[in-house]
From TrEMBL:
Subcellular location: Cytoplasm; Nucleus
Biological source species: Mesembrinibis cayennensis
Family: Belongs to the CutC family.
Record InterPro entries: CutC-like, CutC-like_dom_sf
Name of this chain's protein: Copper homeostasis protein cutC homolog
Amino acid sequence: GLLQVVKQCVRVPVFVMIRPRGGDFLYSDREVEVMKADIRLAKLHGADGLVFGALTEDGRIDTELCTALLAVCRPLPVTFHRAFDMVHDPLVALETLISLGFERVLTSGCDSSALEGLSLIKRLAEQVMPSALWVTSGFFPPGGGITERNLQRILEGSTASEFHCSARSARDSGMKFRNPNVAMGASFSAPEYSIKVADVAKVRTLNAIAKNIL
């Protein structure tokens, strides 16, 4: 439902995240069934691309599963998401992803934010260019902790031509009656009557910064 409404409202390409649950990226057979079903439905309802990631228990790219999921995704382009930041050896993982046919890798440079992982993002970009000349600097959209305060430094330091961020703000709920004794999630989750929404002003500011650099 979300995908259908979004496609009606925007003209930019919409890539759909395929992730059956939170937590790690080691998936069971049942979860793989869900992922394949989600991919088919996303394609049916107009997705322009897919985003997923899968790892083995020892922190390597799950090539067997990724190959199977890529086959379901085709002919749409596919991005490997920040599961990449949890791999044992990012340089080896990168070569694996290129050989499998992923078109982008979303990463914070295996650190808590793209700014802190900037040196690795740059190193990865330098590694990928000689081995795959068709890959542009858009292969590594940095993501993780990107704001209007650090975007310029991240784009200039990574030579990236794309970036990923939430650009969200908290909006107070419109509810007038509020039950303070019940939370619809974990005890450390966001307050029940606070909603995270995309902030148009933040998006415009980030776009302006990027356009000025790129």
